[in-house]
């Protein structure tokens, strides 16, 4: 509605002059955030053309029609995460957003009126609200609608878009009431009212700056946009751009890990798109060499079989179909036209009703998708990319495998004390596992849906991961600040036709202890298989007890050494640092040479870890669940290799997938390990691993020089044979006839 029409309309004579001026001051064009007027024109044409976009529109319209037929409910906030009022307010912002889109495409004002009426109810309630009754006073800033301000910011990100979409269907008095009683005080509460969160370089700060910055564009408050970008005092010490500088590595890896990377992606991409539409001269998607687009691509790479690698505080069921990444892939395709993104969009099977979503839908209708290329890659951690790395190794030899190695940084408050840990995946399943987070997301009966106490007492502790624990004490003694200040070093990473190898080390996880680990995913095409090689070297200035846990998914099948099982009474393995949550189920002490532990995974394959032992290691078999009165923890299995009174020790092992178990057709193949020999030796910087498997003798050679530029073709002698190594990793078949 034009400003002049407001002024000459006799029905507005009783409307305050302020409201008229306010109406005149806002942007002439709405919508003006992620969806623009040009987008709307194209989308309106597409909804009448058979295809994915039309189907998505009619599907969403049907959902919205069912929901708006119900009475509007805007309850007084009282519940924590997962409770009724919490979930109702979440549903409300999503419903307002969806109804706003349907209004723009259908031009049916009933949808705009629904959003208007809900916003007016919020505007009636909001001025009377105090901070949320279930707030966590000590740990973080509270919201008013929600128990934490993070959810409050998410509400604003969605709601300001909904308001933008229906703005032009409102009267001046409705604009005044919604803006003055709701949107403006809401944005000010999240910014000036909570400066510690708004200025924080953290995903909470990202959501807050995105919401307030987008409100600035819609409410014609350019000063809000500047503060969202550069900190409340516009110093650049905080704000959205500082978050882009500090939270991502140059390759686009987010330092809290994949779970929080996909969550933070939504405000980064949404606000980024709004900036690009309103101020293209800022070149936001070119900022830091295109770090936002790199972040979208990296998020995809941080997944296996559709699920994100569950490091740090991660819910293990989250995957590439999460709505945040759907939006990310949509924007990435809209900006780049890369057909690999269409492959991911096809797997996500969700079309976003936006201008970029229309591009995705039309391209998929034309079968333009090309396979997305998952790679073996080392993602540098930290804003400079030099604070360790997260390493992904992949292979297609004998099936789809992935090995995740974590010589990465702490990951702020959501990080775990798990330096140099690893996980392994094969044939679609997790084999060597990480617990992830101890949390039942939005299940109010479980601690209000928040992180459980066991997240700190077990899931974050080192023993919950697959890395060395010294003297039953977690890395950095569980001190987050110390962990954030000390990252591992990635010594090297290389991938070639023989597989992928990486090495990392850290000297600050324990005083006077050096931890160094080399992991390799090695291709053995002669056997149509791969093996995972693990060499963990510990050197200390005095004697320690050293534990190396391995947590696995599946049923224990056999060991090649005697086990003493605790069949009548169980006790916890320790008293603190996570050990208090592990039942000791049994133990054994293998004799010298090879120790084997085999298990069967749900994917129908067998897995055997074969370890080099010298008779002084004890294997402790554990199950999670001790000291867990509320049954909060999953009862998963593991075993710990333990040595005592050691200043220097090497844990050396090979993980071997083999065989098949088919209960439906009642057959079992190759249930027993075929590894019959492992020898480890070094020639200077050259690590040599002789592996005898399935009557074949292999030699794995790894050049451990840290400087890749100094790697040269070199010859060496092994068993009276002269061999040549080009690069860092090679495999030789010694008895190949």
From TrEMBL:
Keywords: Lyase, Periplasm, Signal. Residues 1-28 form the signal peptide. It holds the Pfam family Alginate_lyase. SUPFAM superfamilies: Chondroitin AC/alginate lyase. Residues 382-599 form the Heparinase II/III-like C-terminal domain. It is found in: Periplasm. PANTHER family: HEPARIN-SULFATE LYASE. This is Alginate lyase. It comes from Aliiglaciecola litoralis.
């Amino acid at each position: 509605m034009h400003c002049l029409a407001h002024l000459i309309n006799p029905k507005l004579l009783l409307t305050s002059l302020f409201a008229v001026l306010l109406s005149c001051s806002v942007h002439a064009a709405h919508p003006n955030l992620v969806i623009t007027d040009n987008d709307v024109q194209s989308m309106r044409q597409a909804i009448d053309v058979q295809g994915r976009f039309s189907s998505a529109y009619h599907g969403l319209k049907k959902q919205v029609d069912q929901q708006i037929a119900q009475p509007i409910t805007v309850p007084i906030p009282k519940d924590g995460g997962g409770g009724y009022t919490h979930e109702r307010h979440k549903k409300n912002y999503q419903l307002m957003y969806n109804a706003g889109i349907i209004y723009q495409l259908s031009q049916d004002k009933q949808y705009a009126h629904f959003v208007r009426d809900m916003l007016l109810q919020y505007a009636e309630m909001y001025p009377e609200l105090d901070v949320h009754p279930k707030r966590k006073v000590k740990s973080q800033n509270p919201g008013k609608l929600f128990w934490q301000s993070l959810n409050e910011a998410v509400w604003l990100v969605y709601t300001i878009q909904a308001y933008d979409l229906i703005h032009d269907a409102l009267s001046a008095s409705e604009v005044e009431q919604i803006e003055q009683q709701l949107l403006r005080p809401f944005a000010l509460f999240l910014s000036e009212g909570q400066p510690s969160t708004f200025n924080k370089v953290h995903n909470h700060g990202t959501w807050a700056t995105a919401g307030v910055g987008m409100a600035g564009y819609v409410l014609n408050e350019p000063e809000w946009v500047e503060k969202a970008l550069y900190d409340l005092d516009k110093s650049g010490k905080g704000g959205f751009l500082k978050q882009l500088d500090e939270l991502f590595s140059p390759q686009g890896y987010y330092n809290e890990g994949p779970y929080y990377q996909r969550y933070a992606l939504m405000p980064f991409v949404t606000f980024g798109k709004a900036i690009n539409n309103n101020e293209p001269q800022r070149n936001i998607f070119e900022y830091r060499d295109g770090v936002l687009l790199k972040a979208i691509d990296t998020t995809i790479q941080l997944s296996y079989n559709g699920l994100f690698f569950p490091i740090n505080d991660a819910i293990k069921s989250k995957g590439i179909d999460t709505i945040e990444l759907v939006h990310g892939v949509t924007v990435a395709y809209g900006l780049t036209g890369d057909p690999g993104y269409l492959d991911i969009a096809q797997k996500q099977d969700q079309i976003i009703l936006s201008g970029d979503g229309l591009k995705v839908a039309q391209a998929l209708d034309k079968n333009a998708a090309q396979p997305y290329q998952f790679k073996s890659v080392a993602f540098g951690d930290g804003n400079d990319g030099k604070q360790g790395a997260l390493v992904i190794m992949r292979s297609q030899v004998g099936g789809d495998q992935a090995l995740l190695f974590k010589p990465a940084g702490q990951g702020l408050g959501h990080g775990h004390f798990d330096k140099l840990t690893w996980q392994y995946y094969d044939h679609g399943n997790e084999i060597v596992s990480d617990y992830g987070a101890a949390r039942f997301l939005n299940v109010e009966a479980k601690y209000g849906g928040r992180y459980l106490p066991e997240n700190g007492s077990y899931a974050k502790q080192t023993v919950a991961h697959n890395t060395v624990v010294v003297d039953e004490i977690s890395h950095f003694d569980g001190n987050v600040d110390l962990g954030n200040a000390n990252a591992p070093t990635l010594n090297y990473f290389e991938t070639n036709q023989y597989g992928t190898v990486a090495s990392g080390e850290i000297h600050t996880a324990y005083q006077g202890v050096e931890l160094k680990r080399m992991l390799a995913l090695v291709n053995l095409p002669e056997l149509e298989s791969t093996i995972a090689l693990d060499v963990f070297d510990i050197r200390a200035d005095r004697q320690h007890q050293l534990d190396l846990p391995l947590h696995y998914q599946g049923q224990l099948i056999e060991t090649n050494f005697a086990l003493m099982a605790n069949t009548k009474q169980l006790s916890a393995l320790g008293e603190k640092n996570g050990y208090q949550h592990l039942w000791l189920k049994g133990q054994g002490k293998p004799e010298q040479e090879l120790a084997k532990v085999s298990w069967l995974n749900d994917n129908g394959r067998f897995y055997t870890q074969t370890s080099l032992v010298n008779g002084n290691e004890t294997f402790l078999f554990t199950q999670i669940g001790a000291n867990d009165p509320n049954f909060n923890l999953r009862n998963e299995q593991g075993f710990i290799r333990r040595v005592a009174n050691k200043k220097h020790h090497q844990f050396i092992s090979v993980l071997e997938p083999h065989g098949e178990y088919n209960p439906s057709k009642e057959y079992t193949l190759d249930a027993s390990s075929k590894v019959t020999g492992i020898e480890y030796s070094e020639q200077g910087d050259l690590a040599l691993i002789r592996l005898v498997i399935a009557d074949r003798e292999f030699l794995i050679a790894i050049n451990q020089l840290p400087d890749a530029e100094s790697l040269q073709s070199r010859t060496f002698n092994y068993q009276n044979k002269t061999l040549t190594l080009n690069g860092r990793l090679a495999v030789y078949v010694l008895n190949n006839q």
